[in-house]
């Protein structure tokens, strides 16, 4: 029997918290609800969880403080913030603390499930591929530590953003790399200007790889990019 994904839910709005918990359980998760940040931290220390969903505005210990405390104990557990204010400062603060995603209230239950599943899928892929530092792209060798793309004696030094973006594409080779995820992972904020910047870097990577016919970076309309190789 497959073990259910165990989810820590910290939400001080009792009605919303119970509604979310019931919905998550109905969708096959093992969800445990805590009414404030302090109770959630105690619960986290007592049990094993696979993902944390934290409301930002909570009594006793707010979501950001709770996330900091959780990160001291566990650097890798995925964290999704629930925020009532779609303020850039809140979003940036969340990502600085190592958040995987955020969702602004009010939100649909379907969107929450989609975000949770996307995070779990990504973190699962990352844990499998994070140990890999060197990727082969046709005739090219991409070294993520050295940030180089080489073909024999011909070595191209990539910028940090080029390297980070190519690494994400390699980790998701032949699958869609979600645009927003790439933006949040590398640029922290998925605003219009950063999105335009990412398009420029995709163009640069295509130029670096243009002589290798077996490798292609394609646009997936409305979703993101796909590295085909």
Query: What is the CA-based Rg, rounded?
Result: 20 Å
Low-confidence stretches: none
Secondary structural class: alpha/beta
CATH architecture of the largest domain: 3-Layer(aba) Sandwich
Shape: elongated
How many independent structural domains? 2
The first-to-last residue Cα distance is 36 Å
- Rounded mean pLDDT is 84
Can you offer a commentary on this structure?
With 229 residues, the protein is an alpha/beta fold. The strands form three sheets. A five-stranded parallel sheet has the order 2-1-3-4-5, sandwiched between helices. A four-stranded antiparallel sheet has the order 6-7-8-9, with helices on one face. Strands 10-12-11 form a three-stranded antiparallel sheet. The protein has two domains: 6-128, 3-Layer(aba) Sandwich (Rossmann fold), CATH 3.40.50.2300; 132-228, Arc Repressor Mutant, subunit A. Helix 2 runs parallel beside helix 3 (63-73). The two termini are 36 Å apart. The protein is built from eight helices and twelve strands.
SSE layout:
Layout: E1 6-10, H1 14-26, E2 30-34, H2 37-46, E3 51-55, H3 63-73, E4 79-83, H4 88-96, E5 101-104, H5 109-129, E6 134-137, E7 140-143, E8 148-151, E9 154-157, H6 160-171, E10 176-178, H7 179-186, H8 192-208, E11 216-220, E12 224-228
Parallel strand pairs: 1-2, 1-3, 3-4, 4-5
Antiparallel strand pairs: 6-7, 7-8, 8-9, 10-12, 11-12
Helix pairs in contact: 2-3, 6-8
């Amino acid at each position: 029997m497959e073990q259910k994904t165990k989810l820590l839910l910290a939400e001080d709005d009792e009605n919303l918290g119970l509604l979310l918990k019931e919905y998550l359980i109905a969708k096959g998760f093992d969800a445990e609800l805590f009414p404030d940040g302090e109770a959630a931290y105690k619960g986290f220390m007592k049990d094993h969880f696979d993902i944390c969903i934290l409301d930002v505005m909570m009594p006793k210990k707010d979501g950001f403080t709770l996330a900091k405390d959780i990160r001291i104990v566990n650097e890798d557990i995925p964290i999704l913030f629930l925020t009532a204010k779609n303020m850039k400062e809140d979003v940036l603060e969340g990502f600085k603390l190592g958040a995987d995603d955020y969702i602004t209230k009010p939100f649909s239950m379907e969107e929450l499930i989609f975000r949770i599943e996307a995070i779990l899928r990504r973190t699962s892929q990352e844990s499998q591929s994070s140990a890999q530092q060197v990727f082969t792209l046709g005739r090219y060798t991409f070294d993520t530590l050295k940030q180089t793309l080489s073909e024999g004696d011909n070595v191209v030094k990539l910028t940090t953003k080029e390297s980070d973006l190519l690494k994400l594409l390699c980790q998701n080779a032949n699958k869609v790399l979600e645009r927003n995820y790439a933006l949040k992972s590398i640029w922290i904020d998925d605003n219009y200007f950063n999105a335009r910047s990412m398009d420029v870097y995709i163009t640069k990577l295509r130029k670096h790889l243009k002589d290798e016919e077996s490798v292609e970076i394609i646009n997936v309309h409305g979703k993101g990019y796909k590295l085909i190789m």
